[in-house]
Write a structure and sequence with these properties.
single chain; 488 residues; alpha/beta; seven-stranded mixed β-sheet; five-stranded mixed β-sheet; 29 strands; elongated
């Protein structure tokens, strides 16, 4: 992976002030160990492996010209970042992870015929022709509750009071809901059953049934959900709450998955102050580390936010070294341009492991990518302006996280939409521009939000998509069709 050519004076600054990120206090304290548990973090003992290894795909690769394209930079990243090695996890720890094996059903679900209603288990012949005027009068032989083992046998002229989820007793062919009966009171139609503890006599006596029932009525048949030997979940499935529930229902206590990647976000800049603390002269509150950590979680990762590192290369190197033990991916923000205090570039250029390059895009022209440490943990260095860093995350970091997870769908969905704007949009020649916008799926239109400035974080907060103006276009006229990246 070769460094891009030295920029000409006109190329030096794609965005004003792209050299610094936003973060909070330094972090060499307890926050920087193996994870605090609240994120469900995997400590070093889990030993996440990287299937394809890390490091630039080819140290000598890269475009001959000075600028990399967006696609070339992304391809370089995805050629390097491979899926994490599978591990066995408890069900709740596996939420959000990707299955690496097919899971088959060991037993039928449900495992036995059971009632879907509170009512009475009966024989079909005994309630045939029953009406309110001429009810079927049956002898109640006992209760059947969910979880019961020894079941009474329902014979001719008999019924068993049964609860939802309880197994259908021998001899019974259907369940009549309690609302179709007098509930054993000898009166009119019942509206429910009294608690067994308050009215134990309800398990005996007689019940009048006012309606007939067909065989299998209100009975959930054994295997009606899934049968033994069927495929429950295929390899590649992302485990959400319903999938976790299914695994539990078929008796799986653990499952083999690719773990959620552990992403460490580090912001740089001596001017950065933790939110909630007062600002001094020339200071601003951190926003990037919070936004990017949240974005990493949204992508499926376990995110660890590190407080802002001051503009000192040795401090940054020490901080990154401290984080390697709990990282599958490191993301820095700020310090990647051409300024005298571009700490990320200064700290990571010397050993040649991280390549800093300029991309034909706006915002987000300065970027860095490489792999560090003995384990060759991938590191993506993003610019520091809020919009630049967030757009860069969506284009490059999110796909890397998804690749580590082993999912097939790496990218945000895209659509084509008609531009709605008061005037034409301008775009720098030869750059792919990404503008914030709102998308109307019913009308098929997209409207810009805010201006093109890479510091406009308020506009970003009100956007749900990115408008893409391609490199070959000098702008876009109202009514023209654009590619739109959906962020929601």
């Amino acid at each position: 992976m070769s460094s891009s050519a030295a920029p000409s004076p006109s190329e030096e600054h794609d965005e004003q002030g792209d050299e610094h990120g936003h973060g909070d206090e330094h972090g060499h304290g307890p926050e920087h160990g193996h994870g605090d548990g609240s994120d469900g973090g995997h400590g070093a003992d889990l030993g996440h492996g990287h299937g394809s290894g890390h490091g630039p795909a080819d140290p000598c690769a890269g475009p001959a010209r000075g600028l990399w394209s967006v696609d070339e930079h992304l391809a370089d990243i995805l050629a390097t970042v491979g899926p994490l090695e599978p591990i066995e996890l408890q069900l709740l720890d596996a939420q959000g992870c990707v299955l690496v094996e097919d899971v088959t059903v060991p037993i039928a679900l449900p495992p036995f015929d059971n009632s879907s209603m509170d009512g009475y288990a009966v024989r079909v012949a005994d309630v045939a022709g029953a009406t309110e005027e001429f009810p079927a009068v049956l002898t109640v032989i006992g209760d059947v509750a969910a979880g019961d083992g020894g079941l009474p046998t329902v014979g001719p002229g008999q019924a068993a009071r049964i609860m939802t989820g309880a197994p259908l007793p021998p001899g019974a062919e259907a369940v009549v809901p309690v609302e179709w009966t007098d509930g054993g009171t000898g009166g009119g139609a019942a509206t429910g059953m009294r608690a067994a503890s308050a009215a134990p006599e309800g398990a005996g006596g007689e019940v009048r049934v006012h309606r007939a029932a067909e065989a299998g009525a209100h009975v959930r048949a054994r295997g009606s959900d899934v049968r033994a030997g069927e495929l429950a979940l295929a390899a590649g499935t992302v485990l959400g709450p319903p999938q976790i529930g299914l695994l539990a229902a078929i008796g799986r206590g653990t499952v083999r998955v690719r773990p959620r990647p552990r992403v460490v976000v580090i912001s740089t800049g001596s001017e950065l102050v933790q939110p909630g603390e007062p600002l001094g002269e020339g200071q601003i509150h951190d926003s990037n580390s919070f936004a990017l950590a949240a974005a990493a979680r949204d992508a499926g990762a376990l995110a660890y936010r590190v407080g802002a590192v001051t503009d000192d290369a040795e401090t940054l190197r020490a901080t990154i070294e401290d984080q390697l033990i709990r990282a599958d991916l490191i993301v820095t923000t700020g310090g990647v341009s051409v300024g005298a205090y571009d700490v990320v570039k200064e700290a990571l250029t010397a050993d040649g492991q991280v390549d800093f390059r300029k991309l034909a895009m706006q915002p987000g022209k300065p970027q860095g990518f490489g792999a560090i440490g003995e384990e060759q943990i991938p590191l993506l260095a993003l610019p520091g302006n809020p919009v630049s860093s967030y757009v860069s995350f969506e284009l490059f970091v999110r796909p890397a996280i998804r690749a580590l997870m082993g999912v097939k769908d790496l990218h945000r969905p895209t659509v084509r939409a008609v531009l709605v704007a008061d005037k034409a949009l301008s775009s720098p020649a030869g750059r792919r521009q990404f503008l914030r916008g709102t998308y109307d799926p019913e009308a098929g239109t997209v409207t810009p939000v805010g201006g093109a400035g890479s510091h406009l974080v308020a506009a970003l907060a009100h956007a749900d998509c990115l408008l893409v103006v391609p490199e070959e276009a000098a702008g876009a006229e109202p009514g023209s069709e654009l590619e739109v990246v959906l962020l929601g």
